Amino acid sequence: MEKIIKIGTVTIGQSPRIDITSEIAPMLGEKFKLFEKGALDNLTAEYILENIAPKNNEDVLVSRMKDGTQVRIDKNKIIHLIQEKIHEFDEMEVDIIVLLCNEKFPEFEHKTLLFKPEEIGMSWLFIRDERSSHERSKQACTINKNHNF
Fold this sequence. Notes:
The protein is α/β, with parallel strands linked by helices. It has helices at 18-28, 45-51, 75-92, 117-120, 133-145, and strands spanning 5-11, 32-38, 60-64, 70-74, 96-99, 113-115. The model is unreliable at 122-149 (pLDDT under 50).
């Protein structure tokens, strides 16, 4: 029986991010299984507005809540929340962790292989262009699907 490769995805917003993973998962095939976690999971919109939303001109990031609404967050206030999700995936013993954000972040502690788009040259996945996101994702997944883990 072939080993299933477990991929943990971390978003800066709330999971699930079906706008991203629904296009990637089918292309990965049966050899891969996706797990999702969001830095803002289990936080209410009110809590985020009071504690994580930018107050002035901090480093502003934009993501989504579980219900699809847009949320503005202060980059510096979510770094520790992203780190928590990475640690959770380390404990789950996934094979790969992928940060679903193209922003540059400081180094995170991790035991598992961590892909950060801004460091691995895959930032083109997050840029809208003439091709659909499905076409871009399919190309990236085809490249990665043939990698031996």
